[in-house]
Every structure is written in structure tokens, then in C-alpha cells.
Amino acid sequence: MAYKNAIQAGVAGSVGKPVFEAIRDAGIPITALVRAGSLSATPTGAPIKTVDYTDYPALVNALRGHDVLILTLGTGTPRHF
């Protein structure tokens, strides 16, 4: 199956950043899903959606229109996950 529109959570880490860049550079439309309040640097050259991961309706809304969710969240994520 060819995905038409991806979204990725965890785009700033040592795994997430190169994964995001490889997908973006391959020409696959990808959006960065960024946790509200994050101070991490986000990649450039693609849309960014900022959301509170604990706000279910906001998270669902942010994911709308995407075919695949790529999770590259690190082990240092906040406790409320």
C-alpha cells in the first residue's frame, strides 16, 4: 500500500529526525506532530501540527486526513503518556 499523507510524532530525536527527513526527502507528504509546550527543535520543510497529546479530540483532529501515523517517541517522554 502506498501512503499518500503521513504524520509523525517524535520528530526531534536521534531516531525521529532522520526518519522524518528521509520520508520528506523522498517526496512523501509528511506532517510533524509536535507536543504542545515542546522546546525541541522541529524539522523544516513540512507542515507542523502542535497538539496536547492528552487532549483526545484535538489529537483526533490533528490526525484527520493522514493515512499513516509514524511513532518515533523516545523513552524520555512525559509520565502522563
Fold and architecture overview:
This protein has helices spanning 16-25, 56-63, and strands spanning 6-9, 30-35, 48-51, 68-71. The protein contains 2 helices and 4 strands, in the order E-H-E-E-H-E. It starts with 5 loop residues before the first strand and ends in a 10-residue tail after the last strand. A 4-stranded parallel β-sheet has the order 3-2-1-4, with helices on both faces. The protein is an alpha/beta fold and 81 residues long.
Describe the secondary structure blueprint for this structure.
Layout: E1 6-9, H1 16-25, E2 30-35, E3 48-51, H2 56-63, E4 68-71
Parallel strand pairs: 1-2, 1-4, 2-3
Number of strands: 4
Summed up, the helix count is 2
Could you describe the largest sheet, including whether it forms a barrel?
4 strands, parallel
Apparent shape: globular
Please list the strands of the largest sheet in the order they lie side by side: 3-2-1-4
